[in-house]
């Protein structure tokens, strides 16, 4: 669970927010598809996890992203 908190903090820092709204879209936070790819690459590198293109192509909300990450760690 500590990793999830660390990832949530990373998301907050990256998005420059104080609270995560799991229902907010990534676009709501100003992320375009390239930003999402870069963020996922950062997560893979920092937490030694791997995401397939199939897993990430349908990410729409912050909750979707967090759910995917939770499955991986």
What does the model show?
With 73 residues, the protein is mainly alpha-helical. The protein has one domain: Non-ribosomal Peptide Synthetase Peptidyl Carrier Protein, Chain A (Orthogonal Bundle), CATH 1.10.1200.10. The model has no long low-confidence stretch (mean pLDDT 84). The longest helix has 15 residues, at 33-47. It is globular, with a radius of gyration of 11 Å. Helix content is 60%, strand content 0%.
Instruction: Count up the helices.
Output: 4
What's the CATH topology name? Non-ribosomal Peptide Synthetase Peptidyl Carrier Protein, Chain A
Mean pLDDT score = 84
Q: What fraction, in percent, of the residue positions are helical?
A: 55-70%
Report the major sheet: none
The CATH class label is: Mainly Alpha
The quaternary structure here is single chain
User: How many strands?
Assistant: 0
Class inferred from helices and paired strands: mainly alpha
Order of helices and strands: HHHH
Strand fraction: under 5%
Low-confidence spans: none
CATH homologous superfamily annotation: ACP-like
What is the terminal-to-terminal distance? 9 Å
CATH architecture classification: Orthogonal Bundle
Tertiary shape: globular
Number of domains: 1
Radius of gyration: 11 Å
């Amino acid at each position: 669970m500590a990793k999830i908190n660390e990832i949530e903090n990373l998301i907050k820092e990256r998005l420059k927010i104080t609270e995560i709204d799991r229902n907010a879209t990534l676009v709501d936070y100003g992320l375009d598809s390239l930003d999402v790819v870069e963020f996922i690459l950062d997560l893979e590198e920092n937490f030694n996890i791997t995401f397939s293109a199939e897993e990430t192509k349908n990410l729409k909300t912050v909750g979707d992203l967090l759910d995917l990450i939770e499955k991986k760690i």
